[in-house]
UniProtKB/TrEMBL annotation:
Pfam families: ABC_tran. The lineage of its organism: Bacteria, Pseudomonadati, Thermodesulfobacteriota, Syntrophobacteria, Syntrophobacterales. InterPro entries: AAA+_ATPase, ABC_branched_ATPase_LivF/BraG, ABC_transporter-like_ATP-bd, ABC_transporter-like_CS, BCAA_Transport_ATP-bd_LivF, P-loop_NTPase. It comes from the Bacteria. GO terms for biological process: L-amino acid transport. PROSITE patterns: ABC_TRANSPORTER_1 (PS00211), ABC_TRANSPORTER_2 (PS50893). Residues 2-233 form the ABC transporter domain. One of its GO terms (molecular function) is ATP hydrolysis activity. This is ABC transporter related.
Amino acid sequence: MLEIMDLHVFYGGIHALKGIRLAVGEGRIVTLIGSNGAGKSTTLRSIVGLVKPQAGSVRFRGEELTRLSTHQIIQRGIGISPEGRHVFANLTVLENLELGAYNRTAAEFSGQLERVYSLFPRLRERCRQLAGTLSGGEQQMVAFGRALMGRPKLVLLDEPSLGLAPLVVEEVFQAIEAVRKDGATVLLVEQNAMASLRIADYAYVLETGRVILEGEGRVLLEDEKVIKAYLGE
Ligand code: ATP
């Protein structure tokens, strides 16, 4: 469904991605793990055109995305939940979710809103609250929910569990599996290597802009290098 070939990204003089190659099959959960600054977020941002790669290709269902605008890419069926609290603080939860569904009909909107509320019941309770007054975890749920509102075929999640309490982390990971059951494909960037390798069909380990290791999630969970570097001994 998604194929990235030999992707290079520079931020000024910083060579952030040095020839990334990865593939995400339809209906799968694929995770990118790696230490801070490895290039995980840059990879996601490149897919949706928020960063322009200097070389390489990103193909989604056979179509080259690097020539398209972010707007066009989202229209192709890709949703992104960005890292951190990237919600509209002065809008309510419901208004934030509406923004994720701007290209949908009213019927599609209500259906998807119900789906998001069933995944994150807290958002239904807080639908009239300004997003800026939510807790960090709740804001993360808004960002995740907003990414789902356009019924994307591919969902990109950037650290959806960052800074969350253990119970909420579990809720987020359950939501990721539910989204896959709904038929979507998931590319997940995570610091929580243990949890993401557990649910991932396939995983890539990034270091300083390169893929240094890849394999099935459960295989990498047993890999000595991965255990040492990312899972603690
Ligand atoms: P983290 O887990 O800490 O979020 P990451 O793997 O997502 O890290 P990126 O955010 O993709 O890493 O960053 C890759 C490299 O590019 C880092 O060295 C970072 O400092 C650099 N970088 C990222 N964004 C910018 C920017 N806007 N301007 C300059 N350098 C940047």
